[in-house]
Amino acid sequence: MSTPKARMMAVRRQIVRTFKKHQLTLQLDATEFLEATLEAQNVPPEDLNDTLENIAAGYVAREGLNLVNKARLEVVLESMQKWTHHLHEKPTRNTLDPHKSQSTLSQAHAPSSSQHHSQRSSLHGRESIDMESMRDGIQEVEILGQNNLENGDHAYHHHSEDQMMMEHEPIQDGEEEEDDVDITELLHVVDAFEMPRWAWASDIKTFTRVDPAKKQKEIEQAHRANGSAHTAPIMNQILGMAEEKTAMFRARYHVLLQRIMRNECFAPPVFTGGMEQDRYLKLTPLKALKGRCGERFLMFGMLVQMSDGKYCLEDADDRVDLVLDNSQNSAGLFTENCFVLIEGQYTDDNVILVETIGLPPPELREETKKVFGNIDFLGAPREMRSEDQLKVIAEEYEDIAFVILSDIWLDQPKTFTTLRTIFEGYSNSTLPLAFILCGSFKSTSFLYNGLESGQYREGFNTLAELISEFPTMATFSYFIFVPGPNDPWGGSILPRPKIPDFYTAKVRSLVKRSIFASNPCRIKYCDQEIVIFREDILNRLLRNCIVPPCGDVLIQKQLVRTIIDGAHLCPLPLTTRQVSWAHDHALRLYPVPDALILADKFEAYNFKYQNCHCMNPGSFPTSDYSWMVYYPSSKRSDICQIPKPTR
C-alpha cells in the first residue's frame, strides 16, 4: 500500500512529465500550487493524466509562454473554471443542426453527455464535472489565448453545420469512453496571408513570433529617425518594406543553418577525443577565410550573381567569389538565390575554386517536432485531441480520400463533360472528403475587360450548377479552389490571393463547403499537414540552373529534393519569380509536410521523399484528363483516368 508521500511524489512526477511533453518548464511555486489544487479537488488517479493534459493545453493556448509560474497558472485555471460553470447552465445543442430537434441519425451517433460520460472530479469548482466539459473549458481558454497572442482571427475555414457524423472506437491509451468523430471537422484550410510568421532568434536558439503591427512600428520609427516616412500599413503592401527583403533572405538562411548544425554529420558529441571530432563535418564562416589561402573549406550560403555576371557565395556576414568551371554537383537544381553547401579551395586571388556543390541535409518532420513541438508554424486551430489520437483517427478511416485536379479550364466544354463523368462515379461510390481543384481556371491569360470578366464568372456559375446536380457531394464534400497563373488578381507575385468573391458567388451559394484559398495554401487534416502549390516550377528552375542538373537522377526527384532540402517552395531568383517579402514565410517548408502537392504542367508523378508523399496530378486537359487521389490513411496516392470505351 503506497504512503501519502509516495503518492505525492508520483503526482509530482506526472505533473513534470506532462508539462515537459508540452515543452513547458514549471517553476517550483507553480508545481506546489498544482499539487495542492489536485489534492484539494481529490482528482482520482485514473483521471490525473487527462486533467493535467487539459491544463497544460489550456496554458499553452492562453499564455503561449514556455515558463510556467503560479500567477499565470492561477489565471488559466480560473478561466477554465468560469467557462465550465457556464457550460452547465447551457442547454445541449444538436450536433447536426442547432435549429432542429434531435434527429434519428444524431440519436444513433451522438449520445448525450449524461449517458456517454461518467461524472468525474475536476479542477473547475467544487462540483464534479465530466472530462468533455473540461475540454470545452480548455477551448474557451484557447480562444482567449489566441486573442492575446495574435490580436486577430485565425486564418482557417471551419464548418460546423450539417456534419457527417461517424462513429469512432476508443482512441486513447488505457480506458477511454467511446467518442463520436465528425471527420469533416478535422479538416482546416490555412490561407498563406494569415499564417503566423516566425523568426529565428540566435541568442536564445529558438523561433519567436513576429507581430506585424509591432514590426510596422519599428520600421516606421527607424525611417523617422533617418528623416524619411513610410506610413502604408505593412499588411496592405504588395511586397513589404525594403527592410523586409533583407529580412526574408536572412530568415531563409537561419532556418537552414540551425537545421544543418543539428544534423548528426555536423554535430559531434561534446565529450569525444580529437580523432572522433575529426570524423564530423565543420562549416567555416566566410569571414574566417581571410589569410588562409591554399586551404580547403566547407561553407554554407546563398548563391548570388553579381552585376559583372560572376557568381559568389554569401552568408550572414560576408561574401566570396566562386569559380564554378570544374565543380561537381549532387542531385538538385541550383539557381541564383538558392542556399547551398560548397566545398572548395581558397586561393591567393580571394576566390573559391569550387569542387562540389550540394543542398543542405534535410530533416524529417518528426525530428523537427521533437525540437520545436511547442511552436505552431501552421496556424491551424488547435485540436482538443492529442497528435497521437489524431494519427489513430487518420489511420482508421481508410476510405477518406482527396481528389486532386489541376488546370480546370472552365472555358472549355470538354472540361464539364469530363467532370460530370468523374462526379457521377464518385457520387455512386465512396464520397471523397475533399476535391482540390487547382487553376488555371482559364486556358488563356486573363484580360481585365468586361467581356473576359463576364465569361470567367459564367464558367464558375456553370461549375456550381454541375456540382449542385449531386446534392450529397455538394453538401458534404469540401471543394477547395487554388488559383493558377491565368487567374485574375495577384499578378506574378507569390503568394497569390484567392480568386475574388465577385466571380465565385454562385459556387459559394450552391456548394456548402466550398473554400477559395490562396496559392500556396495548406490543409490540416487530423495530424497531417498537406501543402498545395500551383506553379509550373520545374521548367522555370531548369531555365535558370547555374550548373547542369545531375543526369543520374530523375528530374522530378531532383525538383522535389531541391524544394524540400531547401525548405522553400520557390527557390528561384526574384528577377524570375517575384515573392512578397513580408509573406515569404508562407512559402517555407519547415517542418517538412506530410504531403506535398506540386501541381505542374509536367507529367504526373508520385513518390515519397523524407517521409513526405510528393505528387503532381499533371495538367487535367493536356494529360488526357487524368487526376490524382491521395489517401491520408496510408499516405499514398493513385493516378486515375476515365476508362476508354472498348470497341
UniProtKB/TrEMBL annotation:
<keyword id="KW-0238">DNA-binding</keyword>
<dbReference type="GO" id="GO:0008622">
    <property type="term" value="C:epsilon DNA polymerase complex"/>
</dbReference>
<keyword id="KW-0539">Nucleus</keyword>
<feature type="compositionally biased region" description="Basic and acidic residues">
    <location>
        <begin position="89"/>
        <end position="100"/>
    </location>
</feature>
<protein>
    <recommendedName>
        <fullName>DNA polymerase epsilon subunit B</fullName>
    </recommendedName>
</protein>
<keyword id="KW-0548">Nucleotidyltransferase</keyword>
<feature type="domain" description="DNA polymerase alpha/delta/epsilon subunit B">
    <location>
        <begin position="402"/>
        <end position="604"/>
    </location>
</feature>
<dbReference type="GO" id="GO:0003677">
    <property type="term" value="F:DNA binding"/>
</dbReference>
<dbReference type="InterPro" id="IPR007185">
    <property type="entry name" value="DNA_pol_a/d/e_bsu"/>
</dbReference>
<comment type="similarity">
    <text>Belongs to the DNA polymerase epsilon subunit B family.</text>
</comment>
<dbReference type="GO" id="GO:0003887">
    <property type="term" value="F:DNA-directed DNA polymerase activity"/>
</dbReference>
<feature type="compositionally biased region" description="Low complexity">
    <location>
        <begin position="106"/>
        <end position="122"/>
    </location>
</feature>
<keyword id="KW-0239">DNA-directed DNA polymerase</keyword>
<keyword id="KW-0235">DNA replication</keyword>
<keyword id="KW-0808">Transferase</keyword>
<dbReference type="Pfam" id="PF04042">
    <property type="entry name" value="DNA_pol_E_B"/>
</dbReference>
<dbReference type="GO" id="GO:0006261">
    <property type="term" value="P:DNA-templated DNA replication"/>
</dbReference>
<dbReference type="GO" id="GO:0042276">
    <property type="term" value="P:error-prone translesion synthesis"/>
</dbReference>
<feature type="region of interest" description="Disordered">
    <location>
        <begin position="86"/>
        <end position="132"/>
    </location>
</feature>
<dbReference type="InterPro" id="IPR016266">
    <property type="entry name" value="POLE2"/>
</dbReference>
